[in-house]
Amino acid sequence: MPRFDRTHTDDLAAYIKASPTPYHACAEAGRLLEAAGFTRLAESDPWPDAVGGYYVVRDGSIIAWRVNTLDYDAFRIFGAHTDTPTFKVKPNPDTGGGGWKQVAVEVYGGVPHQTWLDRDLSVAGRLVMRDGSEVLVHVDRPLLRIPRLAIHLDRGANEGQKFNAQSQLTPIWGLGEPRQGEFLEFVAAEAGVDPEDVFGHDLFAAALDEPAYLGKDDELFAAWRLDNLTSTHAGVAALIAAEDTGTRVPMLAAFNYEEIGSMTYSAAQSPFLESVLRRLMGDDYEGYAQAIARSGMMSSDTGNALHPNYPEKHEPGHRPLPGGGPMIKVSANQRYASGAEEQALFRRSADAAGIPWQTYVNRNDIPGGTTIGPISGTQLGILTVDVGLPILSMHSARELCGAEDPGRLADLALGLFTH
Questions:
Q1: Which value, to the nearest 10 degrees, does the dihedral of the CA atoms of residues 371, 415, 355, 36 take?
Q2: Alpha-carbon torsion 199, 127, 398, 264, what sign?
Q3: Separation of CA 364 from chain center
Q4: Transmembrane residues, as ranges (predicted)?
Q5: What are the CA-CA distances from residue 223 to residues 352, 383, 395, 397 (Å)?
Q6: Are 150 and 79 in contact (CB under 8 A)?
Q7: Please, which contacts does 216-220 make with residues 24 or more away whose CB atoms are closer than 8 Å?
Q8: Which of 59, 126, 234, 259 would bridge 410 by S-S if both were Cys, CB 3.0 to 4.6 A apart?
Q9: Sequence-distant (≥ 6) Cβ neighbours of residue 183 within 8 angstroms
Q10: C-alpha distances in angstroms, 188 versus 61, 143, 201, 203?
């Protein structure tokens, strides 16, 4: 029997299932927020100056906040991202030959190719219509497959193989000769729209495996998109619960495109977050500058747990494990935005939440990735700390974390918001 309350992790599993793409993740987050009384705003409309919960969506990114008092003078921002490494469907996707129909795709982000082979995949994303409206679509059944070459035809398969992303990672989706326009006609029909009215699309391969608990005592949790829907979902849950924050405005900022560098009009390097903050402060630049000086941000993204088969890949003095709680991520070269002030912000939040926590540092000879933390901290000039859950198989089509840790991450976010 599980030794913890599974409510939060069960909710995370449902959120992951409903969110195969960033666009679905924003829509599902919006649904959860609206059920809690939040109101969606349009960037092109005037915004109310009133107590309440609000959110805006831009191109797969979502920013949500609640105003508990009109006398606010600071922000507490929980940052995350909504995208995941996968394969994106090309504009003209119909390809193939030799009696096979295939779908042309492009690698999106840092995909470990092996984990996507011989796996049943669906297709999900958005269609942008002639009139500019957006239609979400998810063909929620096995549709695509990237077939592995049989070991009889590749005797060196277990000795390591490098795949050509152009010619060897193209999924199949049927038999026969490819016909231009067929795949998009099929997707449009699944979405219930006229293909002639589809003027643009962002479609992705999506893993179909159900989220699941595993281990002797269900102490582990496996799913696709733990990186980084664990953080987006934790931020939503904490924001809904943050009813008493004094003069601080609690905020979730979950950005699209983190996995490919954050350089779009809606990503962490864009003015999206700054625009929201400035609109909330009005024309008072002095008040805005003072509020930023009083504010703090927590950039939440997954990090690498100690791998039992490759312990030599980890920094010897910092070996976080699933089940040990969220990590503070530290880098002397500011790959993570965590110095002494930031560490203190993290510890105050963790103490307020009453949760265990760990520290993550990369080996000196194995540089790690980075997050939205250094980007947003630099863009805004705001105190920012990098945190996240320790997971195994990062960027795989099936990742693994401690089953209790997602709830602790939400508690950490609430600790940030309320203290």
A1: -90
A2: positive
A3: 27
A4: none
A5: 29, 32, 11, 8
A6: no
A7: 217/1, 217/2, 217/3, 218/1, 218/2, 218/6, 218/403, 219/2, 219/3, 219/322, 219/323, 219/402, 219/403, 219/404, 220/322, 220/400, 220/401, 220/402, 220/403
A8: 234
A9: 89, 93, 94, 103, 173
A10: 24, 15, 10, 11
Q: Name which of 389, 393, 394 is nearest 404 in CA terms.
A: 389
DSSP, collapsed to helix, strand or coil, labels residue 341 as helix
- Which tokens sit at 133? 């409206």
Angle at 206 between CA 203 and CA 208, to 5 degrees: 150
Please report which helix (H) or strand (E) contains residue 286, including its range.
helix 285-294
Is 300 in contact with 233 (CB distance < 8 Å)? no
Residue 192: CB atoms within 10 A of its CB come to 8
Sketch out the chain's domains with CATH numbers.
7-84+224-418 (3.40.630.10), 86-207 (2.30.250.10)
Asked if 302 and 388 count as a contact pair (C-beta separation under 8 A), the reply is yes
* Residue type at 125 in one-letter notation: G
Sign of CA dihedral 171, 173, 176, 181: negative
Give average pLDDT by consecutive 10-residue segment, the chain, 419 residues.
80 98 98 98 96 97 97 96 98 96 97 95 98 97 95 82 91 97 98 98 97 96 97 98 95 96 92 96 93 96 95 92 94 80 94 96 83 86 94 97 98 96
- Residues in the chain, total: 419
What are 61's two structure tokens?
A: 């990114």
pLDDT value of residue 335: 76
What is the widest separation between alpha-carbon atoms in the chain? 71
**pLDDT computed for residue 145 by the predictor:** 98
Using CB atoms within 10 Å of the CB of residue 312, give its burial: 0 to 12 exposed, 13 to 18 middle, 19+ buried.
Answer: exposed
Helices (H), 114-192: 182-191
C-alpha distances (whole Å) from 17 to each of 10, 21, 126, 259, 395 are 11, 10, 16, 20, 17
